[in-house]
Amino acid sequence: MPRKVIPVEGIYEREEGSGLWYARFKINGKLVRKSFGRNRAAAVNYVEKARTLRRSGEGIVPETAKRPVLTIPELEVLGGSVTINDLCDDYLKHVQGRPDLFKDQRNPPQRLDLIRAAFGHRPAASVRPWEIEDWLTGVQRRSTRGDGRLTKKAPLKPGTLNRLKAHLSAIYQHGKLRDKVQVNPARDVKQRRMNNGVIRWLKPEEEERLRAALLSHIETKAHLAQYQEPLVRHRLCELDVALGTGMRKGEQYGLKWTDVDFEQRVITLRDTKNGENRLVYMIDDVVAAFELLRELNLGRRAGRNDPAPVGAVFAIGDNKKWWAQALKDAKIENFRWHDLRHTFCSRLAQKGVGLKVIQEAAGHKTISMSARYAHMDQTSLRSALSVLNRPVR
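RESULT FIELD:
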């Protein structure tokens, strides 16, 4: 008489009596099923190991039967020689080698440095999701003041934390594609919730103070080379272009004179964030700003290690220092250069301009991006609500 087989959850025969055994379990809502032929004991060990690691978190339980179920010691043996530093190096080389695909070449090295500081010498296979979660909760950076000096440590905002997590996930994904790791613990870490409800835009009185602060530099700081009148006039033009076009900072400061058509009053932006070329139409204020910029014809000092590209419109360098100083002098808080783009869209909405026009003017990929400014159109909103009034008798 054949020995009775003790049932085990997740173990079954394809056809009763066939002797061909399968194991199955669920992970992250996905069913994983693997065939073990006549080796029932191997099927039992497989499913029990998967359940144990799923419960304890001390290993990797894949969502496909093509990859093995591995404990942490097994992972360290397989990928113990590959560190987070190695993954960062490979990924950074990939990013810097494809500037056409990765348009942001400035932020990845900074984010990878934060990742290196936390996990750099760790074997990549040993990092667990809870460690990443704890790190994101406590990670801080040193903030820089307008004068370049460091202030006290500041916590990172949810959007920045999400981008850090995305970069950590990206280095693992890149490593998996090259068979250097078999895991990606960052995938199991939840995104931080972002509050995109409040849009910061430049109020008219703030703009007055900002322009006054810039003009005051001509008198109060004229003894300093960086506050000579031509430079201050140049900065006012930079502000006019930003407020009058809504271009992204990278788009504006990457402009070349060949992209500015005075006759047609149009700017051609090439290979934008959305991967497409687009046209920006110039209003009178913007045309005047570009004409003055052409007349000023300012550039960086000779001999610098970072000369401006040939034909650059804004050839004098980054605006970070003068912008921070101007905001401080104008007593404007919680305002970034990118908020000038929000100001451009908000002012259009306040004047009753439709969302489709705002989408085209700002170069938003989808109209849902433009819809964030719909609440600024109080005139149209009040007019629409007026239909609810009771008829006058």
